[in-house]
């Protein structure tokens, strides 16, 4: 029994003898079963097999008949579900039940995988279970090349998704698994190549009935040391009956660390996947695990915070109120971790919890507040939520002498995207989640990414709109940041705006002389516009005139920018942006009114033109509002004006991807609301 955790070589004998390595570039001859024998085995022709066996009383032919994958006639019969042939073969030569094929499978493995219960019972009969291989293992204990026992194979097939949708097939494997557990219960703890026991697999699948059967029948007091944590598997399955059964049998496993999940305790793992019922149950069993950190320095409540599970956090605070004071290795509380991980919804709810007020402006080991960390982690949505809360101090300094705005504006030379700036050049793995705890130590180097400094325009906008200020002399300051921007960047912007303004001027100039409806040719109004007295024509003319002169002003201002003075270029760009926005808006309005005049006699089409035009004028106004208003908006009404364009930019740039709800039990509203406590 104790040899059950050994390798396939130890279980089944020397693999070099049974399944030799295939040499490369060397001709070889594969085993070949006689055609008549093979076809008889496939169709289950018992009479033919018996006849051939009687013709050869010494039975050498039957014993040496193998297919190219080393399957015997018994393997083929077991796979095809031929009960009578299997029974006949066991009577003729029962030793075939101990023969393995190329994959290391006995006929019992094959029958189990195929779901033939009656054949499994024949191959696992009391007589055959007395027959052991060279290592002293019965057929139910033998492992194949992947170290799977027949019970492993039964569960692998039972829990397949395609089988799960087929109740008949699922019941077959359930019956096979129940039979194998009843016959050899100790196999429930045997490990395969993935260090998974059948008990682990059943717990992971949430199969409470089978888990209970395995625990009741097996006599082992502890799982093998190499085994994956059965408690973690029970938590993965999110079945309370399974979790209770496992901990009732093995109560000491409540503190077992998993080898594959950063050394998480069961409580930390339940918190990480958002299993609320599991967290509550484990806390009722013992609260000690709540005060034990993982290898990454996170306590269970920090893990829940980094994953965005607010209900789990509330469960921790209810059972262990002093969890508020727990700090990770970087001296960060749960609000720090939520902000750093970009869990905006969690941050929003924490700000509304009276018991967490003292955490809002608390500093971590590096002197960073939650606002610093949200800015450092490139999470504009979390930054925006924090800036809307009047209790958040926007201008606190960390140990580097930086405010949150300094961190957001900490860049030189390169223009970042809305979504993200440069990624770390050291210690960063491509598959690492930007909200995971492993990344936080990498971020906490001089308050930014290690290597290239980076920024995110949206977080900078959120801070500037809230009235955040720079530190008196931030550590990264090296003169005017704009002076380090490459000249080609300004040149391209100037040329682009100049082209757009020129096109607007050309179009509006032409529209001024080719007015809708044309020119009147009859006296006494010869040369006058046909729609001169129509109020829509008045709007068209005024809009077109404003667009014309606005675009001309932009062109002239940008010509000044061509002189090459950097300060003059920056001033020109700031001046021309709002005016060009006004010109484009007026062009759109002129087009709408002109189109209306042309189709005014067809009422439904005329009104449709007005509706479509008004809708897109609204969108245009929303998009240009942040460009026209000053970056610092101390008055709340201005913040409300730019709030919705800001939210739209977050959605478009997918800057809120880290805020996804990762739990099935947390019920959070996906909408993004302005906090009630506003500045």
TrEMBL record:
ANK repeats lie at residues 262-294. Residues 490-597 form the PGG domain. One of its GO terms (cellular component) is plasma membrane. The chain crosses the membrane at residues 497-519, 539-563, 575-598, 604-625, 637-655. It is a multi-pass membrane protein. It is found in: Membrane. This is PGG domain-containing protein. It comes from the Eukaryota. The keyword Protein biosynthesis does not apply. Keywords: ANK repeat, Membrane, Repeat, Transmembrane, Transmembrane helix. Residues 1-28 are annotated as: Disordered. The keyword Translocase does not apply.
């Amino acid at each position: 029994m104790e040899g059950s955790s050994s390798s396939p070589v130890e279980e089944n004998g020397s693999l070099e003898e049974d399944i030799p390595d295939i040499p490369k570039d060397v001709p070889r001859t594969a085993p070949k079963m006689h055609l008549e024998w093979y076809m008889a085995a496939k169709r289950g022709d018992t009479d033919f097999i018996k006849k051939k066996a009687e013709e050869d009383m010494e039975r050498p032919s039957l014993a040496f008949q193998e297919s190219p994958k080393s399957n015997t006639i018994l393997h083929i019969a077991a796979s095809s579900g031929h009960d009578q042939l299997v029974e006949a073969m066991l009577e003729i030569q029962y030793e075939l039940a101990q023969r393995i094929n190329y994959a290391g499978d006995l006929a019992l493995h094959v029958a189990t995988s195929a779901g033939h219960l009656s054949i499994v019972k024949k191959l696992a009969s009391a007589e055959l279970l007395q027959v052991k291989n060279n290592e002293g293992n019965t057929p139910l204990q033998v492992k194949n090349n992947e170290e799977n026992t027949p019970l492993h194979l039964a569960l692998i097939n039972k829990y397949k998704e395609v089988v799960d949708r087929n109740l008949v097939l699922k019941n077959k494997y359930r019956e096979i698994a129940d039979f194998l557990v009843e016959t050899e219960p100790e196999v429930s703890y045997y490990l395969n190549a993935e260090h998974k026991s059948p008990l682990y697999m059943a717990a992971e699948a949430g199969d409470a009935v089978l888990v209970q059967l395995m625990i009741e029948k097996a006599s082992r007091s502890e799982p093998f040391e190499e085994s994956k944590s059965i408690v973690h598997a029970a938590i993965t399955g999110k079945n309370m009956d399974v979790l209770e059964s496992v901990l009732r049998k093995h109560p000491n496993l409540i503190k077992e660390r998993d080898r594959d999940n950063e050394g998480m305790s069961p409580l930390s793992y339940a918190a990480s996947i958002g299993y609320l019922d599991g967290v509550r149950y484990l806390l009722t069993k013992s609260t000690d695990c709540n005060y034990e950190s993982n290898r990454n320095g996170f306590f269970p409540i920090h893990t829940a915070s980094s994953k965005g599970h607010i209900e789990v956090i509330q469960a921790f605070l209810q059972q262990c109120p002093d969890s508020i004071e727990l700090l990770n290795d970087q001296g960060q509380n749960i609000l720090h971790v939520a902000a750093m991980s970009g869990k905006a919804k969690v941050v929003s709810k924490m700000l509304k919890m009276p018991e967490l007020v003292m955490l809002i402006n608390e500093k971590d080991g590096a002197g960073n507040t939650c606002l610093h960390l949200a800015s450092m982690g490139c999470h504009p949505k979390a930054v925006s939520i924090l800036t809307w809360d009047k209790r958040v101090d926007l201008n606190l300094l960390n140990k580097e002498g930086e405010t949150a705005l300094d961190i957001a504006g900490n860049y030189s030379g390169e223009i970042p995207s809305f979504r993200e700036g440069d990624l770390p050049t050291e210690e960063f793995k491509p598959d690492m989640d930007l909200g995971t705890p492993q990344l936080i130590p990498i971020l906490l180097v001089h308050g930014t990414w290690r290597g290239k400094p980076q920024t995110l325009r949206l977080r900078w906008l959120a801070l500037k709109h809230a009235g955040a200020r720079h530190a008196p002399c931030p550590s990264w300051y090296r003169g005017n940041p704009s002076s380090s921007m490459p000249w080609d960047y300004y040149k391209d912007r100037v040329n682009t705006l100049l082209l757009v303004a020129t096109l607007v001027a050309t179009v509006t100039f032409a529209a001024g002389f080719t007015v809708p409806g044309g020119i009147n040719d009859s006296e006494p109004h010869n040369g006058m516009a046909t729609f001169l007295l129509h109020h829509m024509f008045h709007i068209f003319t005024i809009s077109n005139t404003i667009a014309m002169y606005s675009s001309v002003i932009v062109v002239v201002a940008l010509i000044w920018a061509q002189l090459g003075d950097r300060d003059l270029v920056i001033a020109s760009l700031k001046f021309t942006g709002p005016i060009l926005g006004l010109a484009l808006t007026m062009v759109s309005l002129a087009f709408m009114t002109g189109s209306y005049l042309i189709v005014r006699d067809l009422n439904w089409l005329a009104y449709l033109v007005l509706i479509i035009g008004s809708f897109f004028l609204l969108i245009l106004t929303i998009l240009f509002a942040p460009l026209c208003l000053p970056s610092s908006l101390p008055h709340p009404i201005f913040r409300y004006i730019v709030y919705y364009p800001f939210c739209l930019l977050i959605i478009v740039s997918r800057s809120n991807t880290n805020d996804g709800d990762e739990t099935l039990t947390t019920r959070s509203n996906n909408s993004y609301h302005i906090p009630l406590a506003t500045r």
